[in-house]
Amino acid sequence: MRRRSARTVLASATLATTLTVTLTGCSAEPRGSASDRPGGGPTPVGSAAPSPSRAGVPQGVAPNRRFGVGIRELEFNRGGDRPLPVTVWYPAAGTAGNRAVEGARVAQGRFPVVLFSHGLTARPKDYRPLLDRWSAAGFVVVAPAYPHTSRGVSSFQVLDVVNQPADASYVLTRVLALDTRAGDPLRGHLAIDRVGAAGHSAGGVTTIGLFTAGRDERLDAGIVLAGTALGVGTAFSGQAAPQLFVHGQLDDVVSYRAGKAAYDRVPWPKAMLTLPDGDHVGALLGSDEQALKVVADTTVEFLRWSLYGDPQALRRLPAQAARGGLASLDDRL
Prior knowledge:
Elements: H1 2-22, E1 68-77, E2 83-92, E3 100-102, E4 111-117, H2 128-136, E5 140-144, H3 164-176, E6 190-200, H4 202-209, E7 219-225, E8 243-248, H5 256-264, E9 270-275, H6 282-285, H7 289-308, H8 311-322, E10 328-332
Parallel strand pairs: 1-3, 4-5, 4-6, 6-7, 7-8, 8-9
Antiparallel strand pairs: 1-2, 2-5, 9-10
């Protein structure tokens, strides 16, 4: 883990430096025509926006139990040089727990979908300590390995991060289609009208891009973990989608200041979980178990509220964020 984290730190530092120098001109407005963007052209911010006191999905009740966790692998390709292997975590029948079981039977019910984007030189399974917990709480987590920024790729290209929002939307389209595919284990189990996006570091850039330059109108909420808007800008558009930012103040890869600057530009219901002693990876990859628990529990309550529409989850969220005195919450939800 120590060696892997060092590689991630180095690559992420390259991301910050390269995007700052090369893509400064892209940081204010999205590029491309409206027809190029997933879900059609952008709607002016604030049009048909829900009340700031609630998420944009119908009110509901999130499961109050922990599920077993299943895991499966899918293979997609968005063109010849964009293979997209995808890891899917899902609520499974059987014994509850946070550890995924390959090919486990899907639990009864329909579950919201969360598209997760990894950081530079990482792979989806590096985030199992967090993603297992999301799935155990009742979410299907869809995590592509991006073609030019994941670990082990033959052609590593840091600037390819700006193409990843389109990859993410493509993967989302393919996965949501499984809800009606005869014979697929996920058929009838995906709440295709309750969809969110989340990502860490470069995956945070990808996630912000899904609400700005590459706006995907299917998304109801976002979680940005140690992310920045470099390269994708802060021209948030479309229907209001609540956002939760998580950032450590000791992050020496993507500065807290950069993450906060992106957060400040979000025009919708939002919150920022700040970890005063948090670094770039400890609370996400599991090396800091106490911080991981705070992040996991806070993000779960945010997803329960924003994707299940559960108002009780919104009330519980501040208490989860404050547990142990490890973090503070700027709550504008």
